[in-house]
Amino acid sequence: MAVTLIRHGLTKANQEKRYIGHSDHSLCEKGKTELLDLKPYHGYLKPDLVLTSDRRRCLETVEILYPDVHIKICEEFRELNFGDWENKTYADLCKDPTYQKWLNQPKEVCPPNGEDFTEFKKRVSLGWEHKVVPLFKNIEINHVVILTHGGPIRYLLSQFAQEKRDFWEWNARHGQGYTLNWEGGMEGRCTLLQAAPLMEKQNG
Q: How far apart are CA 75 and CA 53, in angstroms?
């Protein structure tokens, strides 16, 4: 069984370095072009199923990368809800003392009217437990893609990657991510971790 975690393509708000956790932004033209440029030359291995966040930037990424694959919408794989900080930048927030505390202690401080890190972890974990784990018992499913955001990818890698690392030690670029492979049953950490898409040489 393989599970590939892919981050959505670039948005204008990403370019402007805005916090867009639950905000519903579309891909920008550069984001679409980057995905289309990557797709022909790199190994986006076709999955049996795509589980995707319901945000437009994820759904539009699925349409480009996996147009012929069955998808299921999973709100559990949304990004962290930044509450009152949604769509704002560092420049907008830097004088806010709560924001400064959050920068120093992001796992302890909650964005106003947003989601704290414990709530975020619980939501993503429930998505994994209820939507992914049952697929390991389905002999017709060998490869699943989770099309999501940077935060959920970091968290899932911190829990299941072959090499144990902290949440902030992981990163995924737009349109890219990691494939986790398990041999036999899905118990604990994966047995093999690969970059996704597979960076094959264009000349073979």
A: 5
Record the pTM.
0.93
Evaluate whether 77 touches 149 at the Cβ level (below 8 Å). yes
Tokens of 92: 């907008």
- 46: which 2 tokens? 């076709």
In terms of Cβ atoms closer than 10 Å to its own Cβ (0-12, 13-18, 19+), residue 163 is exposed
Q: How far apart are CA 52 and CA 115, in angstroms?
A: 20
pLDDT of residue 42: 62
* Tokens, residue 98: 């709560």
For the chain, how far is it from start to end, CA to CA, in angstroms? 26
Distance CA 50, CA 94 (A): 38
Task: List pLDDT tens digits, range 38-82.
Answer: 887 566 888 999 999 999 999 999 999 999 999 999 999 999 999
Lowest mean pLDDT: which of 13-17, 64-68, 187-191, 196-200? 196-200
